[in-house]
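batch job 7 of whatever, protein = NAD(P)-binding domain-containing protein
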Amino acid sequence: MKIVVTGGAGFIGSNFVRMMVSEQSDVEVVTYDALTYAGNLANLTGIILSAHDRGILWNDPALGIDWPITKPVLSDKDRLHPLLADAQV
């Protein structure tokens, strides 16, 4: 099963990812996170496989490209779990 989790490096998202990985033997989880004040890759320590860790820093000034991600491509995904939200909302 393939799952996309937005906000996966935040408190709720990372715990959801941990739950899915521990309860499902055939799960592949892809997380997207803005990594602002609430998102932290350390929340995913122990469940990220370094062989599959592919980070892309969107809107990186060094790249000089502003790529919009308002409509992500979600083909072949079994579920979408939109946990991405500003905690100050």
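notes: The chain has a mean pLDDT of 72.
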